[in-house]
């Protein structure tokens, strides 16, 4: 099965761009080399675009729109994709997470997915009543956590709001295990975990906010309830950076955060 066989243009705007690129190239009788010269990229870029393995930049698509007289079709689709009009938002987020070299994040109500214990995530999925196969989702999340200990793992700077420590998911044993796991994870050399105390006040970020950096790009992701959105435009990422900087300025230092986690763990008996 090729990369193109896995594309779903009805679910993903990025996949739609990939499909349209190939359709337009073939319709105009162009080779990948011709597309590459017009867009000022390498031939491998074009192959990866059409397979959905790499995302073209807007300027590259504008050049192709002009060459093929599309009326701005590709650039318009790029705008929809980068604005988050994409049903596979979680998939896009996880793709960025896997490639990230650094991840900075904040969560206001739940423990980060990368830091959840198996019991915590199972209780969370069962209480939510959204997923059909709880065990399959647990397995996926456990697999996702492997990035924490892989060779050359990403560096994580995470802030957890204090209410997430006391909002009970599962029974007391689940919560004790989760708190103990947070303390264990905080010992990893690539992890910094701090707590935002309730005394710091409301920071206007319901749900979660994260910024992920890789070699090629920096993106922000915001999620509240069951809705999430990836932001790739520089002004929006910069605004997310301002929000995270504000949260980081109010959070406890690491040592004080660990003491609070340990104290809260003792409340679940």
UniProtKB/TrEMBL annotation:
Gene3D superfamilies: lambda repressor-like DNA-binding domains (1.10.260.40). Residues 21-64 form the HTH cro/C1-type domain. The lineage of its organism: Bacteria, Bacillati, Actinomycetota, Actinomycetes, Streptosporangiales. This is XRE family transcriptional regulator. GO terms for molecular function: DNA binding.
